Every structure is written in structure tokens, then in C-alpha cells.
Amino acid sequence: MQNAAILEGAVRDRYTEGARIAKPNLCCPTSYDPRLLEALPKEIIERDYGCGDPSRYVRSGDVVLDLGSGTGKMCYMASQLVGPSGHVIGVDVNDDMLALARKYRNPMAIAFGTRPVDFIKCRIQDLKTDLEQVEKFIASNPITNRDSMARYEDWLRQTPPAVTDGSVDLVISNCVLNLVGKDERQQLIREIHRVLKPGGRVAIADVVSDKEVPQNLQENPDLWADCISGAFQEQEFMRVFTDTGFTDLAFDKWTDEAWQVLEGIEFRSVTLTAVKPVTGPCIYGGKEVIYRGPFSRVHDDDKHEYLRGSRTSVCDKTYQSLLDGPMSQSFIFIGGSNKSTQTPACQPGGDCC
User: Fold this and answer.
1) Does residue 92 contact residue 119 with C-beta atoms inside 8 Å?
2) CATH number for the domain including 87?
3) Is 93 left (phi over 0), alpha (psi -120 to 50) or beta?
4) Could you give the CA distance from residue 331 to residue 290 in angstroms, rounded to a whole number?
5) 232-233 and 196-209 strand pairing
6) Cα separation of 126 and 283, whole Å?
């Protein structure tokens, strides 16, 4: 059985050291758009550790949340992409990483002409609790008995969440989810779902394994801190997002060659993308799509069927989901009238989405 305190301590120590001295072998080698790195300080680049490039999914005007933001490299890359109308938030629990990232907060904002990145001390599986605010409260209100504990719990309930519900367009992360203990992963995915806006997107680069990692490896704190023994099994990685209500899941990036092979288990970097679906009634605006092929037919997560070469009437939500999603190049989009009606287009009763 995992000892969460030991694993968390190993991760904290490893990344505290990595914030002070560059550790080039700490994670998978990967490459980034050099244009986004030009203005970044050398120490931010050298002491950042990841296995993919989620910045590829950032759009102008996005509110972006980076889970496990480390030195802030990914945040500062995203800040250039969201522009002055967007905003970037980084969350991390490591004080040394936060100090390094915040060191350049204002200079980077001036250089990019954007809003400064906000860096918040949070555990990524609990995006409601700002740990620095907790530390300040406890310093002024020590918990010494039941009454003081009750005051703390009351304060915590009344304190607004560090990251508010439905406030984020895109959640990104770079080789961090695997560091969270197995028993907290469902909570982690629920938190991602909570903070995303309807229609919000996920782009998570992380390490997966082709087989289940055995218990003896999971209990090795060094392998856990090295992003190995906490790896999601491939199908598990998809399943935890599906079970939480995400749709349009895809392994958008998949590293063919294994990064590590241990006890016959292959560990590799992948990038998973997903969407928090828009809810509500189906509104029909006369929109249609044509599936280009090459397969004779395909189905989406809402059980719509698309026949190759045939027009399919869809509701406005489905139309927009296909247009914004990873399969957009596989469809021809035929816009309808600007006036939408409550006529259900996708399924009887209009409850398909």
C-alpha cells in the first residue's frame, strides 16, 4: 500500500533540488517552439522539467491554468500566446519553484505586453485551497484546541476558492499528474472539470505505461519522484477523464519509442486532449455536417452517427463541438440560418448532448 507522505516528500525533495540546480535527466527530453523561449531567462528554461508541449493548444484570449507550473516556463510561453486579452494561472506546491517563477512575473508581463501571470500555491488535486492563505491564517490563529480548529474550518468554508468554478478555458500540465497519489487521482480530475468553463479544453502531457505498474515499483519513492512508478496505465489515463464526464478524448501525441523500460514495462510520453461538454437543451439552427471519410461511418461520444459523404443534421452544440474539436478536419461544415429554434435535431427529445 502506498505511503502518501513518503511519496509526497520524495517529490518535494526532488523538485526542490531541481529548482536550485538543473537536473536534465529528471524527465523526458522534448522540444518547444524556440520563438516562445527567446525572451525567457536561462534558469527558467534549464530548471523546468516536462515530457511534452501543451502550449501548442493555447489560443488567443484563453484563460489558461497550468497544473504543476514549476519554474513558470510553460506559463510564460502560454502568456505570449493568449495575448493581452487572455490570462495565465500557474499552480504549484513547491516553494522554491514558485519563488523562481515569481521572480520574473513582472518583467515577463512588460516584455510580452500581457497581464502578469498569477502563481498560486496549491496542491493540484485541491484547487480550492490557497496554501499560502492557509499558512497566513494559521500563523495568526494557531490551532491549539477544538475551538480554534472549528474557527479554522469555518474560515476555510467561507474563503473563496483559489481557482473559481467554470473560470478556465484550457487546463494544461506537463508531466505532473503522475506525481499525485493513486487515491487522489479521481479528485484531481474532478477539480479539473470543476474549474473549466463548459466547452473548456484539456491538454495534458504525461507519462503512461503499457502495463499496470506493480505495487513494489509504486512504493519506490525515487521512481515515483522520477515520473516512472506513478505513471498512468494507458487505458486508465483515458478512463479517469471519461468517468468524470469529459468527451472528445484523444491521444493527440504519442511517443513511439519508450522513454524507459523497467521490468518489461514501457513508459512513454503522451499528450491527452479532452473537452468539458456544453450542457443544456439542443437548439436547432439548420446546421449540417458531412463526414469526409475514410471510414464508412463514425460515432461520437453523444452517440451521433455520421455516414461517410452524407449530410447529418446536428444541433448547434454538436456543430460547434465538432468544429472546435480534434476531428474538425474530418468534416465539412454547412452553416444554417442565424435564427435557432428549440427543435431537437440530434435525438428525440433533444437530450443528446
Assistant:
1) yes
2) 3.40.50.150
3) alpha
4) 5
5) parallel
6) 35
Q: Tell me if 108 is assigned to some domain.
A: yes
**Strand, helix or coil at 213?**
coil
Domain count within the chain: 2
Phi and psi torsions of 71, nearest 5°: -70, -10
Give the separation between CA 183 and CA 260, rounded to whole angstroms: 24
Range picked from 26-35, 212-221, 235-244 for highest mean pLDDT: 235-244
- Within 8 A by CB and 6+ apart from 154, the residues are none
Examine residue 132 and state whether it is found in any structural domain, yes or no: no
- Identify whether 118 is part of a domain: yes
pTM over 0.70: yes
Residue 346 grid coordinates: 440530434
Q: How confident is the model at residue 290 (pLDDT cuts 50, 70, 90)?
A: very high
Query: Which residues touch 138 (CB under 8 Å, ≥6 apart)?
Result: 152
Query: Do 88 and 185 lie in a common domain?
Result: yes
Residues 20 and 58 in one domain: yes
DSSP state of 341: B
Tell me, yes or no, whether 331 lies in a domain.
Answer: yes
In the structure grid, which three cell numbers stand for residue 168, read together? Answer: 478556465
pLDDT of amino acid 118: 98
Domain of residue 295 covers 280-353
Helical spans, DSSP H, in the chain: 4-20, 34-37, 42-46, 73-82, 95-103, 105-112, 131-140, 146-158, 185-195, 215-218, 221-225, 234-243, 316-324
Strand 265-275 relative to strand 260-262, pairing: antiparallel
